[in-house]
């Protein structure tokens, strides 16, 4: 029988609306997302994300701008979902796109180019990015002075239900939602840049 992975404060990377994100204690190239223990508003984002990533896997969507999901793992804080960790070529954890903008780390032209590349990717592969917050996107310096945006959270939908079913089964509905979400993303981006 496999032992539970123990997640301690030292591995905590970030706290979201309903999940904590930890660096995997046995594999620093991965993170584990775990629901809060006493989260009463739980929409079970792990279940939703897992289903959505399985859907994308069946569609053979390349993972150039989203993190790979590896499935579930048993932890001392409950069931966790494993994803690739996004880090720069030098091994440092990539900064959020929001921090890149606020700290003016890259020129407006470089940022705009990355945003356009992300848009092309989402629209080409019909990927739903519904929680469009700028902190759900990391700016990865994958080679010296070469950057790309990687979505780490907010894919698929807000809850499992009829809309989520339609996202997976109706291209027209999905395309409509992608366009709507992208407009909201641009509003947030343009306010900050």
UniProtKB/TrEMBL annotation:
Pfam families: YrbL-PhoP_reg. It comes from the Bacteria. This is YrbL family protein. InterPro entries: PhoP_reg_network_YrbL.
């Amino acid at each position: 029988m496999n032992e539970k992975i123990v997640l301690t404060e030292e591995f905590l990377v970030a706290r979201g609306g309903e999940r904590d994100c930890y660096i995997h204690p046995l594999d620093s190239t991965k993170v584990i997302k775990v629901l809060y223990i006493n989260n009463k508003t739980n929409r079970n984002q792990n279940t939703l994300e897992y289903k959505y990533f399985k859907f994308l896997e069946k569609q053979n969507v390349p993972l150039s701008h989203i993190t790979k999901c590896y499935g579930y793992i048993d932890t001392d804080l409950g069931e966790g979902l494993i994803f690739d960790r996004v880090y720069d070529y030098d091994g440092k954890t990539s900064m959020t796109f929001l921090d890149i903008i606020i700290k003016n780390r890259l020129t407006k032209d470089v940022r705009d180019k990355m945003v356009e590349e992300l848009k092309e990717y989402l629209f080409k592969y019909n990927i739903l990015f519904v929680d469009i917050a700028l902190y759900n996107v990391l700016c990865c310096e994958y080679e010296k002075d070469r950057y790309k945006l990687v979505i780490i959270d907010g894919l698929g939908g807000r809850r499992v239900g009829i809309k989520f079913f339609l996202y997976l089964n109706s291209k027209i509905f999905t395309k409509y939602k992608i366009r709507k979400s992208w407009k909201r993303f641009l509003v947030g981006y343009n306010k900050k840049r």
